[in-house]
Amino acid sequence: IHTRVRADLKTIAQGAQEEAAEEFQALLELLPIGTAITDGRGRLQRINRKALEFFGLPEAEAKRRIGTDPDALILQPDGNPMPPSQRPLTKAIATRQGVRDVVLGLERTSDGAWAWASVSAEPRLNPDGSIREVLVTFEDVTQKRAAETELTLQTFRDRLTSLPNRTLFME
Fold it and tell me: What span, in angstroms and rounded, lies between the C-alpha atoms of 91 and 30?
């Protein structure tokens, strides 16, 4: 009887864990921004639909490619490659501190176009100080960046000829 009760309690606990995981994933899907959760080494554990749409990846491919891959080409706002040590997820893992609102460029796999995102990474620590998981959020700022570029172009260039205007000359 004792063994049977133990087995029943274990089954109930596993069912509760599975239910909690399903509820958590449902909440993750409701978020209006891309969200991913990695383990303490940067390996993807969970990802929501907004994030998958942003990257243009199916979930299985996302788990393989997203994380701390040093060979991934990620751009800084000035267009130069971002060193792996400066990437939000890598930096959050190394420093055990949150990294907020880092703008970076990523190549979307669905269409090959470059997209810009504002990325934040927040590590969650265990009581012993080790990293349990890292919550990574990213908001698509591609249109905002394109509008800023267009505004700069309009400010310093002639609309008809695209030649430098008086403002650019004076600067």
Answer: 27
Q: Any idea which residue has 């788990």 for tokens? A: 63
pTM for the full predicted model: 0.73
Q: Give residues with Cβ within 8 angstroms of 152, minimum separation 6.
A: none
- Asked if residues 124 and 131 have their Cβ atoms less than 8 Å apart, the reply is yes
Based on C-alpha coordinates, what's the Rg of the chain? 22
Q: What CA dihedral angle connects 121, 127, 130 and 133, to 10 degrees?
A: -40
Per-residue pLDDT tens listing for the chain (171 residues): 656 666 666 666 666 677 777 777 788 887 888 899 999 988 888 888 888 888 887 877 777 767 656 667 788 888 888 898 899 999 999 999 999 999 998 877 667 778 889 999 999 999 998 999 999 998 988 888 878 778 877 777 777 787 787 776 677
- Are residues 45 and 37 in contact, defined by beta-carbon separation less than 8 angstroms? yes
First to last CA, the chain: 86
CB 120 within 8 A of CB 99: yes
Residue 119, both tokens: 């990325």
Are 88 and 102 a contacting pair, CB within 8 Å? yes
